[in-house]
Task: inverse folding
């Protein structure tokens, strides 16, 4: 039996303690794959569990679920949480990378025709078709807040009042957009390598508008970026813009904002997710069991 036959006949590897659902969104007008991982029974604590919602579920759910399946075991580790990944139905095993196109629609807060033109001419798997438009972030947030959260609360042992929105790149920009345009919708926001350059740095203006109208911001926010990102794409100013943005938020001195921001040395735009997720959940889901044990 050759390697191809062995591969074809083997079972797909599951994510432990997880289940997959499909949920239609009337706001977006599309179906989503919702992957849910409850805390393993060997972790401390009891339900109802806090919720960590991860965008880019096709890419990020397995990593987030595996991380949260063991990290609470370490001394000082975070509280166990229910991990929820929002992804897309893929043909086969994702040979056509449909998720890379559809994330352009859902994770961007405003339309950017110049980006669409660039991506329509991009090589696979990043090319987007002519029917895909950017700027669906508000509809996607409406889906999460009005449809997904009530669905989770109705069927699972979770506390959607203690919910954190996490994302990387476009997903991180969306988490920040939600922070300033939907205050109170999420207790925490975990933004890894946010695309602050999107739509001519639109988030800068949104943050400034929020600051003019609010004296406080009751939320927990973890921000990070990879230290090597600016060298990869100097025009995007990933590190410089990040430092400026984080410093502005810190200078607001919101009494109720729990803010952590850091540049992670040696990490790139693609490698930073794992480190950012681990650091972020430690800060956003603080240690309830400081002597939970070690392995």
Result:
């Amino acid at each position: 039996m050759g390697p191809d036959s062995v591969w074809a006949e083997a079972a797909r590897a599951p994510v432990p303690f997880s289940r997959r659902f499909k949920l239609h969104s009337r706001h977006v007008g599309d179906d989503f794959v919702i992957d849910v991982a409850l805390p393993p029974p060997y972790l401390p604590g009891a339900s109802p569990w806090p919720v960590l919602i991860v965008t880019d579920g096709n890419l990020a759910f397995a990593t987030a679920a595996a991380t949260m399946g063991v990290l609470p075991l370490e001394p000082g580790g975070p509280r166990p949480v229910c991990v929820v990944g929002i992804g897309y139905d893929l043909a086969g095993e994702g040979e056509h990378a449909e998720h890379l196109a559809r994330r352009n629609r859902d994770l961007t807060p405003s339309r950017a025709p110049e980006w669409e033109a660039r991506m329509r001419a991009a090589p696979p798997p990043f090319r987007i078709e002519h029917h895909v438009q950017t700027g669906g972030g508000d509809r996607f947030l409406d889906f999460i807040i009005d449809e997904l959260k009530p669905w989770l609360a109705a069927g699972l042992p979770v506390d959607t009042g203690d919910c954190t929105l996490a994302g990387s790149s476009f997903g991180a920009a969306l988490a920040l957009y939600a922070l300033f345009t939907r205050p109170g919708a999420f207790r925490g926001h975990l933004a890894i390598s946010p695309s602050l350059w999107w739509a001519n740095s639109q988030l800068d203006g949104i943050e400034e508008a929020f600051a003019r109208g609010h004296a406080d911001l009751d939320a927990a926010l973890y921000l990070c970026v990879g230290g090597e990102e600016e060298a990869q794409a100097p025009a995007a100013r990933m590190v410089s813009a990040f430092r400026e943005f984080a410093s502005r938020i810190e200078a607001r001195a919101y009494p109720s904002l729990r803010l952590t921001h850091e540049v992670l040395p040696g990490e790139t735009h693609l490698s930073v997710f794992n480190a950012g997720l681990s650091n972020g959940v430690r800060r956003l889901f603080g240690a309830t069991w400081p002597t939970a044990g070690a392995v």
Summary: The chain is about 40% helix and 20% strand. The longest helix spans residues 137-155. Strands lie at 18-25, 30-37, 49-54, 82-87, 158-168, 188-192, 219-226, 257-264. The chain has one domain: 15-284.
